[in-house]
Amino acid sequence: MSKVLQCCQLSKSYNQGDIETKVLNNLELSVDKGELLAVVGSSGCGKSTFLHLAGALDTPSAGKVLINDVDIHQLSDKARAKFRNQHIGFIYQFHHLMMEFSAQENVAMPLMIKGEAPKKALLAAKEMLEQVGLAHRIDYRPSQLSGGERQRVAIARALVTKPSLILADEPTGNLDSDTAEQIYQLIRSLNKAVNTSFVIVTHDLALASRMDRQVKLVKGQLQSFSGQSDAEVNDNQATSDSSLSTEETAKADSAVSERHV
Ligand SMILES: Nc1ncnc2c1ncn2[C@@H]1O[C@H](COP(=O)(O)OP(=O)(O)OP(=O)(O)O)[C@@H](O)[C@H]1O
Ligand SMILES: [Mg+2]
User: Fold this and answer.
1) Of the residues 10, 13, 21, which should be mutated to test ligand 1's pocket, given the most ligand atoms within 8 Å of the CB?
2) Cβ distance 61 to 53 under 8 Å?
3) Which of 67, 77, 100, 242 is the most buried (most CB within 10 A)?
């Protein structure tokens, strides 16, 4: 099957003075076209760092990222920006909306950058905002929206171009369970309709278990993750925000197989 994303020997270190922090260490990953992949891992393990490299928002210290067989870090800045706009949707951990624009304008922006006529782009943005339950907020600016509403605008902005790959950093982190379910259904329907692949970083094990495959970031590498054992499900249900506590993370760690992916 053809691949939408391939990471080969991907490494990233940060240097602060003399101290080097190795966050990703020869990470390997291959995602099929149309696959829904969940990435879990404890806070600070490098999940956002990994997504930023996969989405060409940051450069690796070593290794390669191929998206639809294109080595994205070899492209010029201009070509990379164009490639991102055409192939990748990115949902940031913190929404990164443009504060001076309305929700509708924020969502329309990637289409206009792609060359769509403004009228058409604004109409498509309106339809996408309806799908994330924000029909009544299209004229609001980010400062007039709640945290969860901003996150849904950011989700709509990533989905509006119907890219082949969507990289999402905690897309349901600030949402109530009904809205999170709505977003999950939207992900599934887009996946079914246009074969969009998703790589979703999440602390929500229930959401992770509903993806096609789960991997866990441990010591700078991705390992296959068996999903939820009964004990993990019970632990998860007992946690009001269904995020991974340190104890759950430790249990999940022990459920991880050693096979790299
Ligand atoms: N620009 C930077 N300079 C130095 N260190 C950084 C930088 N960005 C991230 N780090 C470090 O890299 C590590 C991984 O950070 P990252 O944001 O990828 O974690 P994460 O898994 O997304 O965590 P969380 O679940 O809390 O969002 C952290 O220890 C962080 O301090
Ligand atoms: Mg993060």
Assistant:
1) 21
2) no
3) 67
CA distance readout (Å), 31 to 74, 157, 206, 215: 20, 23, 21, 11
Enumerate the β-bridge partners of residue 163. none
Please write the tens of the pLDDT for every residue from 65-116. 999 999 999 999 999 999 999 999 999 877 789 999 999 999 999 999 999 9
What residue spans define the domains of the chain?
3-233+246-260
Nearest CA to ligand 1 atom 5: 14
Q: What is the mean pLDDT of residues 242-252?
A: 41
Architecture of the 3-233+246-260 domain: 3-Layer(aba) Sandwich (3.40)
- The H or E element containing residue 184 is helix 177-194
pLDDT at residue number 234: 39
CA gap 128, 248 in Å, rounded = 36
State how beta strands 88-91 and 3-16 pair.
unpaired
**Residue with structure tokens 């602390």?**
203
| 17 within ligand 1 shell (Cβ under 6 A) | no
